[in-house]
Design goal:
Layout: H1 2-11, H2 15-20, H3 22-33, H4 47-73, H5 78-89, H6 97-106, H7 114-130, H8 136-147, H9 161-171, H10 176-187, H11 189-204, H12 208-248, H13 253-257, H14 261-268, H15 274-281, E1 287-289, E2 296-298, H16 301-314, E3 327-330, E4 333-341, E5 355-358, H17 366-371, E6 374-377, H18 385-393, E7 397-399, H19 404-407, E8 413-417, E9 422-425
Parallel strand pairs: 4-5, 5-6, 6-7
Antiparallel strand pairs: 1-2, 3-7, 4-8, 8-9
Helix pairs in contact: 3-4, 3-12, 4-12, 4-14, 5-12, 7-8, 7-9, 7-10, 8-9
């Protein structure tokens, strides 16, 4: 992968940028076309028609997933190169406040993210409620219709009106001037971002080709993040299909979602017994790809278990190997109460100002992340969900801190020094 990126940019230093920019055309088509892959009454469809509808949805997901996976697989390509520029060319001390400020300013995506668009619109509704121009019930209904799909991804549940009612009730307790100040910064996101970069480029006299390294990373980050949201959107429109399949074969929606894409089609075409296949899956589920990466291979349970045990014994993780120090994913230093989130179901544990600690986060952690003062995760790099959201929200974040969900307990008073990648308990 790294060699391929180097090859693309050797011919044209903006080569990768051009390839990644194709995502935004896909995104527009995706948002327009995926909702059309639905019908009013799924009961009228034959199993074969239902299978085709399902495959049409998945066709779009496959295209978006390429960008999601690229950002994840290639994320370690850029940090050494960015570090070399910052330290050796610009003379900035590694891991200093200045280092992180410049790094994360230069890698901000050009356009405002879906995460921040949703946050902006929620804040607007809260401000309107405080001005008596909107009701909580109408605002909740509006927001759930616009953004309810966001946390679905592969196994998530849509945000309903009650979700937004709870969030809005919390937000209207905040001073109106504070709400409007944050709304203004989000409305002017691109303008503020561009000015920050302009100031940094002028201050350090950064060369165009060096600057491109940061732009490429920002694009990889943004296309990964937005690619995941497209998967969520498609997942939202799959839910009624899953429900219909579940009814026809006396399964739960959760069971249907545990079947591979190929297996769902085979179930609908009468080629396999779903209950038997689910039973065969057991505890270990895995898949891989052939040497040419064109064909997915679903492993049998016994083979998956063998591979898992081999990896556990012999593979060193690229991230999360140190109990004492993680990686700064968003700078800052803050104190707060630790709240361990083992799943999105622990959402209500996190209150305003708490420190959210998780193995990793996904979009369905967002409600808690909006209230948290900092994030700490056991795994992840600079493009992981927690890292991206932390920089968007402007809160400290440490990723790759091994055993952080074990070493800290709910209620511990802790200090997060993200600049140094350190989290410590305050006695």
């Amino acid at each position: 992968m790294y060699n391929r990126i180097t090859e693309i940019n050797r011919k044209d230093y903006k080569g990768l940028q051009k390839k990644l920019n194709t995502f935004y055309k896909l995104k527009k088509s995706f948002i327009l076309e995926v909702p059309k892959i639905s019908v009013k009454n799924y009961k009228k469809l034959s199993n074969k028609q239902l299978a085709q509808l399902y495959l049409n949805n998945r066709h779009w997901v496959h295209q978006a997933a390429v960008f999601d996976q690229f950002g994840w697989i290639a994320e370690e390509y850029w940090p050494p190169k960015m570090k070399d520029i910052l330290v050796n060319k610009l003379g900035i001390k590694e891991d200093s406040q200045e280092y992180h400020t410049v790094l994360f300013a230069l890698t901000k995506p050009e356009e405002i993210s879906t995460t921040l668009v949703e946050k902006r619109d929620v804040l607007k509704e809260a401000a309107a409620i405080k001005k008596h121009k909107q009701s909580i019930s109408k605002a909740s209904k509006k927001l759930s219709k616009l953004y309810g799909w966001m946390p679905v991804f592969t196994f998530g549940t849509p945000w309903d009106e009650s979700h937004y009612t709870t969030e809005l009730k919390g937000l209207i307790k905040i001073d109106l001037r504070e709400l409007e100040s944050e709304i203004k910064s989000l409305v002017n996101y691109s303008k503020i971002r561009n000015q920050e970069i302009k100031n940094i480029v002028q201050k350090y006299n950064i060369e165009t080709k060096d600057l491109q390294i940061f732009y490429d990373f920002a694009l990889a980050l943004d296309t990964r993040n937005e690619g995941e949201y497209l998967v969520s959107l498609a997942g939202y429109y799959l839910l009624p299909i899953y429900k219909e399949i579940a009814k026809r074969f006396s399964l739960s929606v959760k069971q249907v979602r545990c079947l591979y894409e190929k297996e769902i089609v085979e179930v609908l075409l009468g080629k396999i017994d779903p209950e038997k296949r689910l039973h065969e899956k057991g505890k270990f589920i895995g898949w891989g790809f052939g040497s040419d990466l064109t064909e997915r291979i679903n492993f049998k349970t016994k083979d998956t278990e063998k591979i898992y045990k081999h990896i556990e014994r012999n593979v060193i993780n690229l991230q999360g190997n140190d109990d004492n120090q993680g990686v700064c994913a968003s700078p800052g230093k803050i104190k707060g109460r630790a709240k361990i989130m083992n799943s999105p179901n622990d959402d209500k544990k996190v209150h305003q100002g708490d420190i959210l600690i998780a193995y990793a986060t996904t979009v369905d952690y967002l409600p808690a992340m909006k209230r948290a003062a900092a994030f700490v995760t056991e795994v992840g790099g600079l493009t992981c969900h927690a890292a991206v959201v932390a920089r968007e929200f402007g809160v400290p974040c440490v990723v790759g801190l091994k055993n952080s969900t074990i070493n800290f307990k709910d209620g511990d008073l802790i200090e997060v020094d993200a600049n140094k990648g350190i989290v410590r308990k305050i006695k």
